[in-house]
Amino acid sequence: MRRRAWSVPTAIAACLVLAVASGVAVRTIAPPDPDHLTAPIGEVRRHVLADGSTVTLNTGAVLNVRYGAEGRRVRLVKGEAFFDVVHDPSRPFVVESRAGSARVLGTAFDVRLSGDRARVSVLRGAVRVQSAHGDGAAVVRAGQGAWLDGAAPQALTLEDPAAVDAWRQGRLIVYHRPLSEVVDEIGRYRRSKVFVRGRALAAKPVSGVFDVGEPDDAIDALAASLGLRMARLGDFVLLY
Q1: For the packed helices 179-187 and 215-226, what is the interaxial angle rounded to 10 degrees?
Q2: Is 207 within the bounds of a domain?
Q3: In the Cβ-directed half-sphere of 194, how many Cα atoms lie within 13 Å?
Q4: Dihedral sign, CA of 89, 73, 56, 49?
Q5: Is 183 found in the same domain as 230?
Q6: Closest CA to 76 of 104, 37, 106, 48
Q7: Torsion-angle region of residue 234: left (phi > 0), alpha (psi -120 to 50) or beta?
Q8: 98: how many CB neighbours lie within 10 A of its CB?
Q9: Considering its fold, how many domains does the chain have in total?
């Protein structure tokens, strides 16, 4: 993922648009360890925290929870999580990751960790984000996002706020994304990787709405719409 401004594309009609909408089930469960929350590959799980705040974990995510009398801290170890936080000025809510932190009082926002970088997207309220290296801070408000990637964070307009948490309804919404990135996103919901052969094909722009609850069906529909061929070796898929 590159650092970039998020503006709404103006030529979506020129790109492929797909819609598959059965969705993935979101399970609300009582975890064996309330301080260590996970979502298995291919599943989305919603948890209610001790203060009534909720966190929804995307496929493969890992979150550690540390609540105390003076503060509420969680650490995103892996993947993506959406937070809907109960307002409590006396106990700030802080999401930490190896890329940096986001401090809130009451809001709804998404954090996605990718390597040593994190993307924070705010749908309601505001958060204060800071790089793990301490290189400045920024206030990110509803409809904005920011990267935590070692540089001073900057608030940027979201491309499409509805796309931020579409995964909670089992959907992936993309605008003008390279084919390779789209199959990687869908592939997060599979245990085996999907490959694209050739740089030109990998760079082909795609826009659409995909059902990540049925990732193989989404890949089949994508390949058919682009006129691609597929080769399968066990669970691995090659598009060419």
Answers
A1: 160
A2: yes
A3: 25
A4: negative
A5: yes
A6: 37
A7: left
A8: 15
A9: 2
